[in-house]
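Suppose you are handed only these lines of text.
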Amino acid sequence: MTDRIVDFLRRRTEDGPCMVLDLDVVRDNYTSFAKALPDTRVFYAVKANPAPEVLDLLAKLGSCFDTASVVEIEQVLAAGATPERISFGNTIKKERDIARAHAYGVSLFAVDCEAEVEKVARAAPGAKVFCRILCDGSGAEWPLSRKFGCAPDMAGRVLEHAHRLGLVAYGLSFHVGSQQRNPRMWDGALAASAAIFKDLAERGIALQMVNLGGGFPTKYLKNVPAVRQYGKAIFEALRKHFGNRIPETIIEPGRGMVGNAGVIEAEVVLVSKKSDEDRMRWVYLDIGKFNGLAETMDEMIRYPIRTEFDGDATEPCIIAGPTCDSVDVLYEKEPYELPVSLAIGSKVLIEGTGAYTTTYSAVGFNGFPPLKSYVI
Ligand SMILES: *Cc1c(COP(=O)(O)O)cnc(C)c1O
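From them, the structure of the protein bound to pyridoxal-5'-phosphate can be written out as follows.
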């Protein structure tokens, strides 16, 4: 929470929940990544928050961009980044979208199977490809499942196929799971990467790059290590597995770049109990799973919530959103401590909400408008 955000909210007169994002925090985060990993290029994961002001700032600071669709590529180009600074990092692309990206000048593509390599070879001949490998997301609060990536022992074959089809077999990528609280989780994937580098070198293919993905955390209720500790652990793992032949590296922070730059202001719509004996209060906010807080799914992300009554006695509550969908409950399995004095009409501030909120908001479910966003 910055003074600029507090000032902005004090002056705001409009009704309804909103997310306010402070660009100064994004600038500090970019600088911290650049310092923590000085030889690594930063590709901001656009999906975390594609607000034009964020993309403009990062383009000016020299960031590159990880994109997942042609629309994201167009947003980044509009922010003034050249196509050499864009990676089409989604492993699931329509061939005509690859062709459109290629026509824009994008020449770096993610793949994780031979069929995707063939699409890239047809639609973007001569482009660079990196193969994503599966990585166990343990330790991450928002794990990324098996949807993307192939087994490490398949990656060599995928990249060899790319090489045969005239593409540049450029490197490997992985993602250790979003909100990864353990800086040592890069070690296993880097061991697997080094083995693939060696294997392909023996077959005459010199890979050049390891994409270390995202996963850098934002501080929610629990503390997280500083970016500098991630930089240190990653550098040590690179040394350990690649010796003095460390490849070119890139990172793709999303949450870690913008999460702590944003705050949501919301309002308490109702406080009630379900029966006379019920000890647990229900606190209903004007924001929920469908207008910005989708990451409370399975109570995975637990945002810090501040109120004007902080310091008063607290009581565990169930927190829910405003829609008529029964899944629109934010925290129930693990109830949330809120001040007893919190009442209908009170404002609450939900911190750490700069990433994965505005674009996760439904367009008009139940008549609730999409989450308003202000970038200051
Ligand atoms: C979403 C995504 C990221 C960003 O992940 P964070 O955990 O938010 O840092 C990075 N790379 C790829 C390929 C992604 O899909």
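What can we learn from it? The chain is about 30% helix and 25% strand. The chain has a mean pLDDT of 96.
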